[in-house]
């Protein structure tokens, strides 16, 4: 299990399991290399916002994250930032033509919603195994 994080005047251990689903549940992660591109973009934005991605894995139409981040960052703002950043950059990548075949009217990638739960009632090991066995 992780240790407590310390900041100026507080200690914390905030871990979340977050899931994003591809728009219309399209099985986009079957496209070769797209999963790696989304993971790379996710890592970039998380480093900028002091977020630790403990585990991350994709299935055919969704991505799972297990993350740790400070209480100064809200879940909703992180989700909004991650979705916007990955969508913007994946459409400007080598996958744009393939995405146009699926989303010909709009430059979208994710559904509007998301799933999040705080980690506490399940062990980190159990969640790690679950995420790593996706796909």
Automatic annotation (TrEMBL):
GO molecular-function terms, A-Z: DNA binding; transposase activity
Matching SUPFAM superfamilies: Transposase IS200-like (SSF143422)
Source species, domain of life: Bacteria
A GO BP entry: DNA transposition
Record SMART domains: Y1_Tnp
Occurrences of domain Transposase IS200-like (ranges): 11-134
InterPro entries: Transposase_17 (IPR002686), Transposase_17_sf (IPR036515)
Protein name: Transposase-like protein
Source organism: Succinatimonas hippei (strain DSM 22608 / JCM 16073 / KCTC 15190 / YIT 12066)
Origin organism lineage: Bacteria, Pseudomonadati, Pseudomonadota, Gammaproteobacteria, Aeromonadales
